[in-house]
Each structure stands twice: as structure tokens, then as C-alpha cells.
């Protein structure tokens, strides 16, 4: 059994947004669309203020509300837990976007490019299927699938690992199979205290945040 | 740390406003059985206009038929099926009100119920996912539809139904407000209680003896109800935002 998950060590993240840039480059998302982003959060009042950088995106929930509300069945969940969108089925109603508690979904109705006219790379990467439909983080599913086909281990071998994890300069982002007790992410979760965002909503997000070492 | 969602704007709000009023009108027409068939036709026009407005919001308009693909879990799909049923039975009721008008009213109730559940299932928007939103949406539809039907007949049965719907709507609003406070809904909520309930009830009471007062009561109920629903969908729809139950403990490695 495989269940892919992301682990973010909040103690290590420095908010450099390299993961955001890597995601945008790897997935060719248009301006304003960030499947992986880092939220800069402040807590407390002066002088007792603390700051945290929090990577967010699609949490690939166990019980994804986006999938349940989708009227076209474009949103589905794979056996390995990755939540996908079929761009050929999606009608772009936006229902999934308002159902997602993590603001992970985007919809772009007209082609947009960084400098008005598309650059050479933007032209090469442009996918008309993504216009007018919902899009979101895929956990770089193509990289995972291709890597697995080559016998590689996602989360360990960069070629089979999501671009955001590969790019993290602080080793704050990790990816792996939480159903495997010996995987990198399972060990991190065993060695550290962690939480999942908005766990009270019962969506079962597969994005864990480490905040302290285990007692 | 939350912000207003932009995925559903006034076009989506129109679906809830016009669809609710149209659905409520079909129900009221079935109860009041006015001589004219105009309320039935108007109900269908309103529902169609609401659906047309939200269709304009979709990114892939030519694939609209895909909305029917997920009746198992999606309230939007169920709303679409309810709409088809409503149009079929409504068209039949235009031809022969009995026995089709009561059936069309049931379809209208199902349509309105689906609309309420659409909001309830929007987990990302706290103002929508509150369980109390279901009764609020259904009761506003009943009150606005009954109010609109007062343009066609001021029969005592309809006036009584209208008054009951107003009371139900005020109770629903009070329960909702207690559960999901939103600054964006305070003004329309106040209008709903003062103009859309108290003033409308007084006018409805007057309508028993002076029929000309009844449409005014209906107008007050409709205007305040639509205002509230527009605010609920387009102004109070702040998303969940991000939150950390724990802060990182640094310097431990």
C-alpha cells in the first residue's frame, strides 16, 4: 500500500520561495498561479512576536471535499492518494475551489504570461487544456510515475521526487510513502511532533508539519 | 488570515437569488392556485435566468452537460437534475396545472434544497458551511416566492403562507447569525428583520383588509431577502484561511 505525503519542517523553512519558483518552472503555471507557495505568518503582539513560514498547496486529502462537490467527476483520487483533475472533464465551475479549505485551487480563464506576450519557454509549455478549468498541485505525479517505472524511489531519488522538494535549500520539504514505516517521511514523523492543518475539518490532509522534536 | 473568495461572484449569487425566488414562487403558486398561469411561467423564467447567470461563470461553457456526471456526491449535479425535473413538470403545469403543479412545486422544493446544500458543502467558506445555512436558504426562497406570488393573488391562504415563511426566515436568520457571525451580513440582516420581517408582516396583516398592501409586503420581503443572499454569496464568503495549532520550536537541533 502506498500513500504519498509531504512533510514540511517548519523549523527549517526560511521562506525563500525557491519551492514556489521550482514548482512554477516545472509545471509551467501562469502568473498568479502558485501550486506550491509559502505563507509568511506572524503570531503574537510586539514585543512577543513569532514568525513562521508555512509551505501550503493541495493537501491531497484522504477525504477531499473538492472531489465530493465536483459535478463533472473531473476531480478524482488515485489509489496512492494523489488527488487529480481531468482537464478534459472539468467545466470550470469553481465549486472545488470554494470547497477546498486550503485555497489550493486556481482557475485562469484567459492565457496570461509574465511579460504580456509569451516567452519562448511559455510558448513551449503552454497547455490550452488548463484554460478555464481548475488546476492545482499534482505532487508532480508524472515525475513519480515515471520514476517508479524506472525503479526509482519518490522522495529519495530526485528524478522521482516533486520539484518543490528537490529545490528546497533548507531541506525543509520531504516527500515519501507514509504507509511504509521505513520511509524517510515515516521516520521524520516518528522522530518529531507534527500536525496537519485544519485537522478538525476531517479532510485527512496528507501534508504534515513538523514543529518540534519528539519528547 | 483569510480573504474574500473570488471564484463565485455576482453571477453565482444570481443563481441563488433568482433560483430561490423562482423555486419559492412555484411552491406558493401550488398553494395559492391563482387563476393565471403567469406565476408558473415566471417561476421557470427566474430559475432559468439564475442558471444562465451561473453558466456564464463557468470556464468551459460548452461542456456544461458534464454537470450531470456526479449525482452520487455533488449537490451541484443534484441541483441540475432537480432543475430538469422542475422545467419538465413546470412546462406540464403550464399546460395542465392539475395534477402537475403540485409535482412541480415538489421539484422546486428539491431544487431549493439542493441550492442550500451546495453552500453547506463548501467547506472552504466558514460562512457557507454552517449547518444553519440550509434552513436560511430554504426559508428565504419560500418567503421571496410567496412575496412574488402576492403580485398575482392576495388570497388569504397565500397571505398566511407568506406570513409563516417570513417568521421562519427570521428564525432561520437569527439561528444562522448566532452560528456564523459575519460583518458583511449585519446590514442586510438588519434589513431582513426590520423591513423584510416586521414591516412586511404588518403590511401582510393589512393585506387581509386592504389587498393593495399585500404586494408591498411581498416587495419588502423580496428586496431584503435578495440583498441578504447576495451578501452571503459575494460579500461574506471569506475563505478558511491558514492557521497553525503549534508554532515551530527553533534551536532544538
Keywords:
heterodimer, A: 215 residues, alpha+beta, four-stranded mixed β-sheet, 7 helices, 10 strands, B: 253 residues, mainly alpha, globular
Q: Can you put this structure into words, describing what you see?
A:
The complex is a heterodimer of chains A (215) and B (253). Chain A has 215 residues and is an alpha+beta fold. Helix content of chain A is 22%, strand content 24%. Chain A contains seven helices and ten strands. Chain A has a four-stranded mixed β-sheet. A two-stranded antiparallel sheet of chain A has the order 2-3. Chain A has a two-stranded antiparallel ribbon with strand order 4-5. The model of chain A has no long low-confidence stretch (mean pLDDT 96). Chain B is mainly alpha-helical and 253 residues long. In chain B, 71% of the residues lie in helices and 0% in strands. Chain B has nine helices and no strands. Chain B has helices at 10-32, 38-55, 75-95, 97-120, 126-129, 133-149, 156-179, 183-207, 213-235. In chain B, helix 1 packs antiparallel against helix 4 (97-120) and helix 7 (156-179) packs antiparallel against helix 8 (183-207). The longest helix of chain B has 25 residues, at 183-207. Chain B is globular. The two termini of chain B are 30 Å apart. The mean pLDDT of chain B is 96. At the A-B interface, strand 2, strand 3, helix 2, helix 3 and strand 10 of A face helix 3 of B.
Amino acid at each position: 500500500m502506498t500513500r504519498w505525503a509531504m512533510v514540511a519542517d517548519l523549523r527549517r523553512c526560511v521562506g525563500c520561495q525557491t519551492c514556489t519558483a521550482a514548482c512554477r518552472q516545472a509545471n509551467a503555471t501562469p502568473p498568479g498561479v502558485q501550486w506550491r507557495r509559502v505563507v509568511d505568518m506572524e503570531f503574537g503582539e510586539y514585543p512577543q512576536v513569532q514568525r513562521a513560514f508555512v509551505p501550503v498547496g493541495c493537501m491531497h486529502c484522504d477525504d477531499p471535499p473538492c472531489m465530493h462537490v465536483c459535478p463533472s467527476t473531473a476531480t478524482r483520487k488515485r489509489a496512492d492518494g494523489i488527488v487529480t483533475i481531468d482537464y478534459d472533464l472539468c467545466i470550470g465551475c469553481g465549486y472545488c475551489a470554494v470547497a477546498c479549505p486550503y485555497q489550493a485551487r486556481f482557475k485562469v480563464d484567459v492565457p496570461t504570461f509574465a511579460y504580456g506576450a509569451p516567452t519562448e519557454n511559455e510558448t513551449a509549455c503552454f497547455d490550452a487544456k488548463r484554460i478555464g478549468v481548475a488546476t492545482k498541485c499534482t505532487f508532480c505525479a508524472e515525475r513519480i510515475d515515471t520514476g517508479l517505472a524506472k525503479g526509482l524511489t519518490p522522495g529519495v531519488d530526485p528524478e522521482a521526487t516533486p520539484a518543490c522538494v528537490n529545490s528546497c535549500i533548507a531541506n525543509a520539504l520531504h516527500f515519501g510513502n507514509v504507509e511504509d514505516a521505513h520511509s524517510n517521511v515515516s521516520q521524520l514523523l516518528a522522530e518529531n511532533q507534527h500536525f496537519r492543518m485544519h485537522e478538525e475539518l476531517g479532510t485527512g490532509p496528507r501534508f504534515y508539519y513538523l514543529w518540534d522534536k519528539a519528547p | 488570515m483569510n480573504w474574500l473568495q473570488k471564484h463565485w461572484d455576482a453571477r453565482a449569487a444570481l443563481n441563488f437569488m433568482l433560483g430561490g425566488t423562482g423555486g419559492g414562487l412555484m411552491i406558493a403558486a401550488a398553494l395559492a392556485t391563482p387563476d393565471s398561469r403567469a406565476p408558473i411561467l415566471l417561476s421557470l423564467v427566474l430559475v432559468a435566468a439564475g442558471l444562465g447567470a451561473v453558466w456564464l461563470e463557468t470556464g468551459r461553457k460548452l461542456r456544461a452537460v458534464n454537470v450531470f456526471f456526479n449525482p452520487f456526491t455533488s449537490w451541484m449535479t443534484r441541483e441540475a437534475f432537480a432543475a430538469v425535473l422542475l422545467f419538465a413538470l413546470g412546462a406540464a403545469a403550464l399546460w395542465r396545472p392539475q395534477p402537475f403543479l403540485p409535482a412541480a412545486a415538489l421539484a422546486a422544493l428539491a431544487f431549493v434544497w439542493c441550492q442550500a446544500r451546495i453552500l453547506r458543502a463548501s467547506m472552504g467558506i466558514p460562512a457557507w458551511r454552517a449547518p444553519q445555512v440550509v434552513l436560511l436558504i430554504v426559508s428565504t426562497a419560500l418567503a421571496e416566492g410567496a412575496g412574488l406570488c402576492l403580485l398575482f393573488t392576495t388570497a388569504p391562504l397565500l397571505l398566511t403562507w407568506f406570513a409563516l415563511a417570513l417568521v421562519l426566515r427570521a428564525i432561520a436568520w437569527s439561528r444562522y447569525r448566532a452560528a456564523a457571525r459575519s460583518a458583511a451580513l449585519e446590514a442586510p440582516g438588519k434589513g431582513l428583520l426590520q423591513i423584510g420581517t416586521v414591516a412586511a408582516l404588518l403590511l401582510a396583516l393589512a393585506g387581509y383588509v386592504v389587498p393593495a398592501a399585500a404586494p408591498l409586503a411581498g416587495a419588502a420581503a423580496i428586496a431584503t431577502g435578495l440583498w441578504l443572499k447576495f451578501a452571503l454569496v459575494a460579500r461574506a464568503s471569506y475563505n478558511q484561511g491558514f492557521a497553525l495549532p503549534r508554532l515551530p520550536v527553533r534551536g532544538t537541533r
